[in-house]
Specification:
Blueprint (H helix, E strand, L loop, with lengths): L7 E8 L3 H12 L4 E5 L6 H4 L31 H14 L4 E3 L5 E5 L2 E6 L2 E11 L4 E3 L13 E4 L14 E4 L3 H11 L4 E4 L13 H18 L5 H12 L9 H6 L3 E3 L2 E5 L2 E4 L9 E4 L3 E3 L29 E4 L15 H23 L6 H11 L8
Parallel strand pairs: 1-2, 1-6, 2-3, 6-16, 8-14, 9-10, 9-14, 10-11
Antiparallel strand pairs: 4-5, 5-6, 7-15, 12-13
Helix pairs in contact: 1-8
């Protein structure tokens, strides 16, 4: 055995304990299938806690519940990031989902007819693996960011919490979509603020106004959930565009930014003499730059031929990877519908993937007359199966 211990054996490993991973866990538990959720964060919900302090969700609470448990707030209110994090903790505890936190999966490969996951010195062999995307994304900034003068404070939106992190002086927020607009408004009361980037448009109604609450948001959610899917012509037309370009700003309007004294400026194109240079060649003398330039999916840890050449997404059909039986994704942007990237939209995708896992498991049992899983994880079957058929109203 050359000193290498046998890997732990698990039926299904879910990589990521955010809303996508927990939704998968719920459906696996409903079917009595043994599984384990692994999350890199110290606590469930940290992916939400670690965002800027003033963040509120862009969808009302009535659309933010995961399968089997509605969000505990007034239906038309907009939860804070911490309320969302606390809800995920309560969700995992209520359904007794088997979760290991503080464990980041470093590598996913094949070992014979199983998958092998490596997390530090831990090795786990699994029949099925579900990748919940949010656990493997990297903040992106343009390469010329390193040319800014060292005196300029640089923060990505993933690092920004509140204005106390900034130096006295002007702030350039790069990226004018939701995070950029919201963070620019957050800092504008104490700093001269410029917002750089392409105008992506805005939702034509106030999402928290009477029109938005009673008509606008229900219509949008119906469109996102039922109309804009890979099964409809309009969904197939819109999907490639949304994968590459941001949609309209949801909450804020141009007049909100103007009223706060925020100046809209062209796209930042580079750095000159240590300062930001805009598309119109204007140089801004600012003390701070906040990069709201988004995230890039990180598939480098998956040592399998499952990623498209453009590296935007895996090769899949509704989260099922046909060339790697037993490998699945949940939480991808527009995985099946425009709602797939929303908290309340991951449940349907999770159910579809778990249906595939259950079918595959039944096939394996028929072929081998047994369910080869680790005894410690098999014990979780008894805990989670108590919740089968249990729904909260």
């Amino acid at each position: 055995m050359d000193g290498v211990s046998e890997p732990e054996r698990v039926g299904t490993v879910v990589v990521g304990g955010g809303q996508a991973g927990l939704s998968v866990g719920y459906h696996l538990a409903q079917r009595g299938l043994p599984f384990l959720i692994m999350d890199a964060n110290a606590r469930i919900g940290d992916a939400w806690r670690n965002r800027w302090d003033s963040l509120r969700l862009f969808t009302p609470a009535r659309y933010n519940g995961l399968p089997g448990m509605p969000f505990p707030a007034k239906g038309r209110s907009f939860p804070t990031k911490n309320e969302m994090a606390d809800y995920l903790v309560a969700y995992a505890a209520h359904f007794e989902l088997p979760i290991r936190t503080g464990v980041r999966v470093d590598r996913l490969s094949r070992q014979g007819d199983r998958f092998l996951l490596t997390a530090g010195d831990r090795r786990i062999a699994a029949e099925n693996v579900v990748v919940a995307m949010s656990s493997h994304e990297s903040p992106w900034v343009p390469p010329f960011a390193r040319k800014l003068d060292p005196s300029v404070v640089q923060l990505h939106s993933a690092e920004y919490r509140n204005p106390s992190q900034l130096r006295k002086g002007g702030v350039l927020v790069v990226g004018a979509h939701d995070s950029g607009a919201e963070i620019a408004l957050d800092v504008a009361s104490g700093h001269p603020t410029w917002l750089s980037g392409r105008d992506t448009g805005h939702v034509p109604f106030r999402i928290d106004g009477s029109v938005g609450r009673w008509f606008g948001m229900p219509l949008v959610m119906f469109m996102f959930y039922h109309v804009m899917t890979v099964s409809t012509p309009i969904g197939r037309k819109v999907r490639p565009k949304l994968l590459r370009h941001a949609g309209p700003v949801v909450r804020l309007k141009p007049r909100d930014l103007a009223a706060a004294g925020i100046e809209r400026v062209p796209k930042m194109m580079g750095v000159r003499e240590g300062r930001p240079v805009l598309e119109n060649q204007q140089i801004l003398e600012v003390a701070n730059v906040i990069w709201c330039t988004g995230f890039r999916p990180d598939f480098s840890w998956i040592d399998l031929p499952v990623i498209r050449d453009d590296k935007i997404e895996p090769i899949h059909r509704r989260g099922i990877v046909s060339n790697q039986p037993g490998l699945y994704f949940v939480g991808l942007f527009f995985q099946y519908a425009a709602s797939s990237g929303l908290v309340g939209g991951v449940g349907r995708d999770a159910a579809h993937v778990v249906d595939a896992i259950a079918s595959r498991t039944r096939g394996d049992r028929s072929a081998h007359h047994q369910d080869p899983t680790a005894t410690d994880v098999e014990a979780t079957k008894n805990a989670t199966s108590r919740e089968r058929g249990r729904e909260l109203s």
